[in-house]
């Protein structure tokens, strides 16, 4: 995660000082980063810009895996709004106030890593982490969190909203594997299934499901939302 690097953007001299603290955290985690600040702010940063935040975000949005904005939340929301498309492709966005008191997961919390980044930064600089994702607040694991912890690929990301909603609302959610040993150690043991036909039968008793399989199975033939996860080493894009 964050292979394309992270952009840290500040607007004030206090923000650039906090950016330097954040940079040390990323260095410790061996994550590449670049700090941006306006030309009018005299700070030792890698890149300066003319102060047009909307223009800078337009350049960065599809070039980096995450943006850490050291400024007020409102400024970030207004400046990013034109470019926000989809949580599966938008970069993670984390907002930190100028003096580093609060660290807020703003966009792409789970699937793109903003929640993880928020907690890491907050823990290192002594900020208060602000994560509003329902599953995390309720102490439940989302599909994205399970996938990240066990190096799994989410084959059908369109299932995330209905399946995570079922988890949050305490619906009956199946957690199972198909023809695959349990990857690593899991908090909850998945139900082992031998094939897709067995999954289809079992799903009659559930509202949604999370299935870990060795490879692609025809999830689209099910009438209920099921998130399919497979080992990243086994995943091949559809056009391959």
Task: Describe the structure in your own words.
With 240 residues, the protein is an alpha/beta fold. Helix content is 30%, strand content 24%. The protein folds into two domains: 6-132, Rossmann fold, CATH 3.40.50.11220; 143-234, Udp-n-acetylmuramoylalanyl-d-glutamate--2,6- Diaminopimelate Ligase, Chain: A, domain 1, CATH 3.40.1390. It has eight helices and twelve strands. It has a seven-stranded mixed β-sheet with strand order 3-2-1-4-5-6-7, with helices on both faces. Helix 3 links the parallel strand 4 (66-70) and strand 5 (92-96). Helix 1 (13-28) packs across helix 4 (114-125) and helix 2 (53-60) crosses helix 3 (73-80). The radius of gyration is 20 Å and the shape is elongated.
Number of domains: 2
Assign the structural class, choosing from mainly alpha, mainly beta, alpha/beta, alpha+beta, or little secondary structure.
alpha/beta
Shape: elongated
Total number of beta strands: 12
Which spans have pLDDT < 50 for at least 5 consecutive residues?
A: none
- What is the mean predicted local confidence, pLDDT? 87
Keywords:
240 residues, alpha/beta, Rossmann fold, Udp-n-acetylmuramoylalanyl-d-glutamate--2,6- Diaminopimelate Ligase, Chain: A, domain 1, 2 domains, seven-stranded mixed β-sheet, five-stranded mixed β-sheet, 12 strands
